[in-house]
Amino acid sequence: MSSDFSAILLDLDGTLIASEPGILSSCRAALRSLGHETDPAMDIASIIGPPMEDVMRYLLQQFGDDRVTQGVDAYRQDYGARGLLLSEVYDGIPEALMAMSQFAKLYLATSKRETFARRILENKGLDALFAGIYGSTPAGNIDHKPELIAHIMREDNLDRHRCIMVGDRRYDIAGAHANGMRSIGVLWGYGTREELESAGADRLIESPAELAEAANGMTSLDLPK
Asked: Would residue 66 show up in a list of annotated catalytic residues for this protein?
């Protein structure tokens, strides 16, 4: 039997937190550990979102290096030690999460390692607002958003008609739609308006101040089943 409550699934990087400084720092450290010098102007904002294996593969291609696993391991070692502490919560997000928790259960759905995501939320004092915190695991079977969202829905007995996914990249929108779920694209993160529109986001919002109202309106819609 499906649950009778509304649920809001939220991405982390670029949706709740500005994570680029920590991710960039740890990517640089990982590349250095493999013997590569990085461009001081290196910009990774456009590639934040997918699993780190995909990001590292992209970064290593320019060096003709296929040591993705070693690069990811080096990244995670540095990120766990210091990179994740460089994340900053976007202004207005704590208030939005508090407001949304009054009418729906909140779930984190991130391609970041679950252990890192949990530590970030705990560090920012936001973990208690979530009914569940989900991210990638060493098994690698839920690294991508379609599989991750499907896993959350199974684990928590969620009804896709009463769920929405909130994220800043096309991966979030595609993951939601792959599971028959509606989506909100946020424009303060690392994805562009064009990217989110092309992915088919059901609604776009420009600031965290709009999030709770938009989510409330979307989760309360009566859709045919």
From this structure: no
